[in-house]
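Q: I'm building a small set of examples for a reading group on sequence design. Run inverse folding on the following structure and report the sequence directly after it, with nothing in between.
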């Protein structure tokens, strides 16, 4: 009994099969690259959202509860406000929920940028540029709120008659009261910019921490 003749593939058919296989591999590669790019985009947006939430929590707690606070200055022998409103650095005192009676109900916050990170320093005791450094930093907590930060800038709202004016440098020596509001702008290295604006608890249009100010015409 004769066996059927085996069919051989032609060169054209082999080339066609290789081309189809290459196209399938190319399509799979594009699909994997697209999935990877989408995943990186989602991860980047998730990290940025987490950073914005961390900043919002810190700003919302500190700015809204900021209160005037003074501390003796040994050099000038006067009470100086523990508040520093520079264009790129902010130091203030704010009311904090009492969790430890020894720590008290006040916290002191310093916001600044270092090594492309927005950092926050928290302490239950005052700290300022004119105060002597503490013997120990055990009670100081440092937190990196955001990474990849190019710069930050602050604006401070002040009274000017019936008008509200904004300044990027708050002179606590000439104005011992707190700003009416504080705006924080964060500019990331990728060009994205976000802003947070909050009113302070200790600064009002006609009062400062419950104390009546001079009449405003």
């Amino acid at each position: 009994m004769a066996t059927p003749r085996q069919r051989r593939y032609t060169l054209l058919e082999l080339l066609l099969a290789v081309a189809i296989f290459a196209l399938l591999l190319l399509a799979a590669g594009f699909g994997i690259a697209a999935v990877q790019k989408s995943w990186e985009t989602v991860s980047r947006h998730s990290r940025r959202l987490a950073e914005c939430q961390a900043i919002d929590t810190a700003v919302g707690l500190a700015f809204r509860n900021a209160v005037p606070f003074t501390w003796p200055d040994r050099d000038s022998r006067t009470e100086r406000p523990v508040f520093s409103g520079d264009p790129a650095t902010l130091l203030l005192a704010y009311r904090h929920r009492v969790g430890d009676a020894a720590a008290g109900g006040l916290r002191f916050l310093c916001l600044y940028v270092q090594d492309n990170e927005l950092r926050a320093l928290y302490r239950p005791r005052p700290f300022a540029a004119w105060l002597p450094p503490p013997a120990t930093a055990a009670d100081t907590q440092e937190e990196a709120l955001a990474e990849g930060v190019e710069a930050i800038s602050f604006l401070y709202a002040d009274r000017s008659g019936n008008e509200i004016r904004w300044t990027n440098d708050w002179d606590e020596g000439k104005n011992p009261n707190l700003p009416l509001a504080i705006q924080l702008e964060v500019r990331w290295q990728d060009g994205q910019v976000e802003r947070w604006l909050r009113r302070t608890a200790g600064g009002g249009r006609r009062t400062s921490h419950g104390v009546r100010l001079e009449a405003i015409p």
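The mean pLDDT is 80.
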